């Protein structure tokens, strides 16, 4: 695997740019077994996750990544665990401090 810190930084930049500009385009990043829990409600599957993300109550959002930690998650397959903390500026110009995601 390439340097996992470089890979994780590139993924984070790609993901949050896509989230900020076109949440509907995130579908290919998820699988049918993927899960998202938002405000205590679990959502499973790529289509359901994209539906949830596109139905959020704000039209525009900007992510500001504050910290990013990554580590390999398997010795047998190329995979990473990435933890990101940061800030969200939503369309109401309200700053939101989410928990790590």
From TrEMBL:
<keyword id="KW-0539">Nucleus</keyword>
<dbReference type="GO" id="GO:0006606">
    <property type="term" value="P:protein import into nucleus"/>
</dbReference>
<comment type="function">
    <text>Has a role in nuclear-cytoplasmic transport of proteins and mRNAs.</text>
</comment>
<dbReference type="GO" id="GO:0005635">
    <property type="term" value="C:nuclear envelope"/>
</dbReference>
<dbReference type="Pfam" id="PF02136">
    <property type="entry name" value="NTF2"/>
</dbReference>
<feature type="domain" description="NTF2">
    <location>
        <begin position="7"/>
        <end position="101"/>
    </location>
</feature>
<dbReference type="GO" id="GO:0005737">
    <property type="term" value="C:cytoplasm"/>
</dbReference>
<keyword id="KW-0813">Transport</keyword>
<dbReference type="GO" id="GO:0051028">
    <property type="term" value="P:mRNA transport"/>
</dbReference>
<dbReference type="InterPro" id="IPR045875">
    <property type="entry name" value="NTF2"/>
</dbReference>
<keyword id="KW-0963">Cytoplasm</keyword>
<keyword id="KW-0653">Protein transport</keyword>
<protein>
    <recommendedName>
        <fullName>Nuclear transport factor 2</fullName>
    </recommendedName>
</protein>
<dbReference type="InterPro" id="IPR032710">
    <property type="entry name" value="NTF2-like_dom_sf"/>
</dbReference>
<dbReference type="InterPro" id="IPR002075">
    <property type="entry name" value="NTF2_dom"/>
</dbReference>
<dbReference type="InterPro" id="IPR018222">
    <property type="entry name" value="Nuclear_transport_factor_2_euk"/>
</dbReference>
